[in-house]
Write a structure and sequence with these properties.
Layout lengths: L2 H16 L12 H7 L4 H11 L2 H5 L5 H8 L3 H36 L24 E7 L3 H12 L5 E6 L5 H9 L2 H9 L2 E5 L11 E5 L5 E3 L2
Parallel strand pairs: 1-2, 2-3
Antiparallel strand pairs: 1-4, 4-5
């Protein structure tokens, strides 16, 4: 072995062994934190994991904890609790997704006003899954908007199963929202039947092109249809 080669080997070895190994530290999410995200107790979330490790996981891979627990319980009281928790979670999900989609549409019109935008109107290519959500329709209108009121009446006559009405201009005043709804008997009936939700629409107050009608397909994609 030549002295030059040996010297190069020693230098290279010193460089390699001088490098400290990169340490990547990850924090493991605790059972308590995972349960809290879904509004469940630790024991309920542990039961969910056991369910998904068995037949339920085979039948419905990827099923969310609330639905898995709700369809698996034999207790009417528990079933009712999980149903209410599911509705609250789904409502919050719908509100956030719709608000973001409206913001995306507004940004598109502001940044590329002369460029037509294609929205996916056809059926999704994603394979059917137990986690698919029922299609929903959302109407965003202003408190004093005559055209929006007419749209709402037409939608109520069609007796849609999942309609979310967002009224802009109430400023979070529940009394004003109830007074507005009192003039629409069909709306009051639909609310009592659970087919429609009535919401303050302050998060859409910067939207100028109202009324607006959105529909969400089974895989959570919102698209403006009117």
């Amino acid at each position: 072995m030549s002295r030059a080669w040996l010297a190069a080997y020693v230098v290279l070895s010193a460089v390699v062994f001088a490098e400290e190994p990169e340490v990547v530290i990850t924090r493991q999410i605790s059972l308590s934190e995972r349960a809290q995200v879904w509004g469940l107790s630790e024991s309920e979330f542990r039961h969910y994991e056991n369910l998904m490790a068995g037949q339920r996981g085979h039948w419905s891979p990827g099923l969310d904890p609330i639905t898995a627990l709700g369809v698996s319980t034999e207790s009417a009281v528990e079933r009712q609790r999980f149903a209410e928790l599911f509705v609250k979670t789904e409502f919050e999900r719908t509100r956030k997704e719709l608000a973001f989609q409206v913001a995306v549409d507004t940004a598109w019109q502001r940044l590329y006003p002369q460029t037509p935008r294609l929205s996916p109107r056809g059926r999704s290519l994603q394979a059917p899954s137990a986690t698919l959500s029922p299609p929903r329709t959302a109407l965003i209108l202003r408190l004093t908007d005559t055209q929006g009121r007419e749209w709402l009446i037409n939608l109520l006559q069609r007796r849609l199963e999942h309609l979310d009405v967002h009224v802009v201009g109430t400023r979070g005043d529940d009394a004003a929202l109830r007074e507005w709804a009192a003039d629409l008997p069909r709306l009051e009936q639909a609310l009592a039947e659970g087919r429609v939700t009535l919401n303050h629409g302050d998060q859409f107050r910067t939207e100028v092109d109202l009324p607006a009608l959105y529909r969400r397909d089974g895989v959570g994609q919102w698209a403006r249809v009117e």
